[in-house]
Amino acid sequence: MKLGFVSAILPEYSFEQLIDYSSKIGMDCVEVAAWPVGKAERRYAGVTHIDVASLDKEKADYINNYLQERNVEISAIGYYPNPLDPDPAVRKTAAEHIKKCIEGARILGLHNMNTFIGKDPSLPISENMKLFREIWPDIIKCAEDNDVKVGIENCAMFYSMDEWPGGKNLASTPAIWTDMFSIIDSKNFGLNYDPSHFVWPQMDYIQPIYDFADKMFHFHIKDVKFYADRYNKVGMMATPLEYHAPKLPGLGDIDWGKTMSALYDIHYKGPAVIEVEDRAFEDTIEDKLHSIELSQRYMRNFI
Predict the structure, then answer these.
(1) What is the CATH classification number for the domain harbouring 98?
(2) Mean of the pLDDT values across residues 102-118?
(3) Rounded Cα–Cα distance for residues 48 and 32 (Å)
């Protein structure tokens, strides 16, 4: 396993600053954000540390030489839009850029790209599955053609009222994963698994590691804190941010010893990258850097 972090927490940094910092603190790898250049649509989105739209062999050679000189790898290209958005134009734009990220990964000599399935929050799962059947086979065909594995994060993208009522990512439960992987049976289609997304819905976050061992392409390290006192006031029908919050690993409710033990049990040897979204560490750039280093120090107990 190689320990890294998701670059989206450092939008202030250039690619070079990102890799220099990663090398300085001894990170093995970085999941590099590759959103289209422009304004962010939500927190931790819209970050572009590699512009895949303009990537060519010359730029790829520069990037790879820079990485090699500093002994840091790219774990994956990361881009998390909504390819099943209610607006067909948004869907098309998202799907096209996912393909650009896949092609960019190939140009860089990488084999992992991480993203969301997307979802129309106003439609039931059955109708969203129809959209999935329409849109995703072509994306995975692109991944197969480029020898890139697409890892889907299991975040429901349902945390606040702007994502109500159904969230913006279909791939939020093991039952749905099973259906998706039966519809698209491909060695290039799997998971970028994040156990933290199963804490607020009170689901087992360890068993899926065993059940989907062959689909574990990439792993996100993020903790969460479930506040029972808040939950008891608002109940399960409230939006999840009313009773839980992302935390640094070791500061929330995830049992990291048992979680990492499960990864070792399945002989997982892929990237494990820290995703910092703890608002207690976002006041300054120094706070964010401190949060990355605290997380790294804690996870080095296991990796």
Answers:
(1) 3.20.20.150
(2) 98
(3) 8
